[in-house]
Amino acid sequence: MHDAITDVAGIEVGHFTDEAALTGCTAVVCRQGAIAGVAVRGAAPGTRETDLCRPGTLVERAHAVVLCGGSAFGLEAASGVARELAAAGVGYDAGGIRVPIVPAAVIFDLALGDIAWPDVAAGRAAAAAATSNEPERGCVGAGTGATVGKVLGMELATKSGIGTASVDAGGGVTVGAIVVANAGGDVVDPATGAIVAGTRSPGGDGFADSVALVRGGFDPPPPVQQTTLAVVATGAPLTVEHANHLASAAHDGLARTIRPVHTMHDGDTVFVLATGANGTGTRLDSIAVTRLAVLAVDAVERATLDAVRRATPMGGLAAGGA
Q: How confident is the model over 194-213, as pLDDT tens digits?
């Protein structure tokens, strides 16, 4: 066990990192396909194929989820992941033609580093690098240009990254999460209430407390777009409806740790991949699904904290701490 999303059987993770431009992408791959769900919060999402993750569609399984930097430009990386998987014979069988189903979502990282984004080649590289081993964390992949605490502008933000965690659900079932923390507000440890990373005080002494600034009615700088992304995975045999319920509930893990969250400038998105690797073909009852949802919240909470704690200083910004 790696305390990572790859602890879920059938899940692989690969990164493409551009350290010069401070951007990248991350592919969460399930070659056998996984029942997919999604929940989007906030008013500024950048996504691809989220409709295929909702109930009532013909195709219910996704073969990868791609988390990308580069704002809307970065969505082209998902096409690279799809091409790489298709070349490996992975995808929905459309009359003998393999079509990988690859939902994706982006963060806005264009304000740090160069104005650049992961392209098709970057997506192919991320998919080619995908493995079930413990994934890299911190300022890699989609977390390369991630930042938190932008309420007073980028110059007082804190470097963030990508983090992951897993929870043993018992009975051989694991719930894992991977999170790109790119919030406008602060990341707070719910256990202590302490700000781990966020808006820094102009005087250089600790954190300014983003929520307190908003409550005080300060005059903010022009908004720098933000968005936090997550993928939750489990081996449990979920239906599409169950997967969407887990995605909705898992946002509570972001709400526990990010303050403020789900704002007009966020496109916070949580995907769920249910491989069914630990299933028996029996439909789960409401109690079992509720328990998985609780564990998904825990996994997202821990992965969010991991994302800022694993970050290192980049782009002239200090990183968070323990």
A: 999 999 999 878 999 999 99
